[in-house]
Write a structure and sequence with these properties.
Blueprint lengths: L1 H27 L2 E4 L1 E4 L4 E9 L4 E9 L5 E8 L6 E5 L4 E12 L3 E10 L6 E9 L2 H4 L7 E2 L5 E2 L2 E3 L1 E5 L3 H4 L7 E4 L7 E6 L6 E6 L10 E4 L7 E6 L6 E7 L1 H7 L4 H6 L1 H9 L15 H10 L22 H19 L1 H9 L1 H63 L1
This protein binds zinc ion (2 copies).
One zinc ion (ZN) binds next to loops.
């Protein structure tokens, strides 16, 4: 019987020890779980940090590590614990959290919740969210001395890391493309190519650049004007036979420009340009079918200011149209576009084929026109600044003279006194 009693007592002791050991183990190792969420860029996700097996914790100081390249920390809200103080170091992807209770808290459940916004340019993938020591550099991932109870005992929890999964969303919300970059320039004979890349999924979109001519800023006479027929001029491509901006001019204009009085004004191109750029719209581009009625009325008064027309085929200075490209663009272009379609097959085909290309040309032309205007205006500016410089030099010289005279007088007086 004594053997049976001994055996029973031994079994009871063993059971008791097991229960006590498991109780001690259970109280000393809390489990902290961080939730897993997945969503698409621009959206926010809420990540919960919860505790189980809580042995009683009074103070906690630790770091929450996250991927700051793809996630943006928005807010931290407390669970059952007192309001934590926290500091987000977005450069490091680290939030340092500190909580101090008045006594040990034994609750299980949500300690705190984090709100992250998934960045617009976030790449698809799974980004871990985990806990680390608040003295991160020194202790790395060890959570030693991060959690403690009222007896100043350190409690090291087991952490189940969480994550935010960024889902690929271009299929639903469209790609987030960069700006176009030209990979092959277009020429007169060959189309070019440009491409752009999606920042989110890396998709590359390619597009063809239509054939592009490099047109001269100056007009060229294609057909000389005669008393019975108007002349034609256009801007030629520097690299091929293509032409654009085809307009006509009358024989009368050629005659007007040959007026002997004009010789003076031809020497004085800059001033005449400036005046015609100002209030008068370009009267000289008054080709029979494109000129406006306003231009006709001011034609006579303005004719003496014109650059002479070189009415020979291939000449480069027809009319003052070139000087007034801007007026031409604004007033006459819409009319002449139709004209162009019928007279220039190569060009019209290209224009009807691609309106973008035509826009680029007109923009280039306008810019050229602007440039011309600025250079014209720059001339008087240079002379003004030179005049200013001369005046300043004169003033400095006269001041120097006065000072020199004063010094001379003082010296003489001193000599007299001696
Ligand atoms: Zn994409
Ligand atoms: Zn060309």
């Amino acid at each position: 019987m004594s053997i049976v009693k001994k055996f029973i007592s031994f079994v009871l002791c063993a059971i008791l020890c097991t229960i006590m050991c498991s109780a001690v183990f259970a109280t000393s190792t809390p489990i902290i779980t961080i939730s897993n969420k997945s969503d698409v860029p621009s959206n926010s996700v809420k990540i919960d940090i919860s505790i189980a097996n809580n042995p009683g914790i009074m103070g906690m100081t630790f770091s929450i590590m996250y991927d700051s390249e793809n996630l943006e920390f928005v807010d931290l809200s407390r669970g059952y614990i007192s309001a934590p103080t926290y500091n987000n170091l977005s450069d490091e992807g680290r939030i340092i959290v500190a909580v101090t209770e008045k006594e040990d808290k034994y609750d299980n459940g949500t300690l705190m919740s984090l709100i992250f916004k998934i960045k617009d340019n976030a790449k698809p993938g799974k980004y871990a969210i985990t806990l680390a020591n608040h003295k991160y550099e020194k202790y790395a991932d060890s959570l030693h001395n991060c959690f403690s109870n009222s007896n100043q005992e350190s409690i090291v929890p087991t952490v189940k890391a969480g994550s935010v999964t960024v889902e690929k969303t271009c299929e639903n919300s469209g790609h987030k493309y960069s700006v176009w970059s030209v990979t092959k320039k277009a020429s007169c004979t060959e189309t070019g190519q440009k491409e752009r890349t999606c920042a989110r999924c890396g998709d590359i979109e390619k597009q063809e650049i239509p054939i592009t001519h490099d047109f001269e800023a100056e007009w060229t006479v294609d057909k000389a004007a005669t008393p019975s027929e108007d002349g034609i001029m256009s801007r030629h491509c520097k690299n091929c036979d293509a032409v654009t901006d085809k307009i006509t001019f009358t024989y009368q204009e050629v005659e007007d420009s040959k007026d002997p009085d004009d010789n003076t004004s031809s020497d004085n191109n800059i001033s005449s340009d400036a005046s015609s750029n100002g209030s008068n719209s370009s009267s000289s581009v008054s080709s029979s079918d494109v000129s406006s009625s306003e231009n006709n009325s001011s034609n006579e008064s303005n004719s003496s200011n014109k650059t002479p027309i070189d009415n020979t085929v291939g000449a480069k200075n027809p009319l003052s149209a070139v000087e007034n490209t801007k007026d031409f663009q604004e007033n006459i272009k819409p009319n002449f576009e139709n004209n162009n379609t019928s007279s220039n097959t190569e060009n019209s085909a290209e224009q009807s084929g691609n309106s973008d290309n035509f826009d680029t040309q007109s923009i280039t032309t306008t810019t050229d026109g602007d440039k011309d205007t600025t250079t014209d205006k720059a001339q008087p500016f240079i002379s003004t600044s030179m005049g200013m410089a001369i005046i300043i030099i004169c003033a400095l010289l006269s001041i120097g003279m006065v000072v020199f005279c004063i010094i001379l007088i003082i010296r003489r007086k001193k000599a007299e006194q001696d």
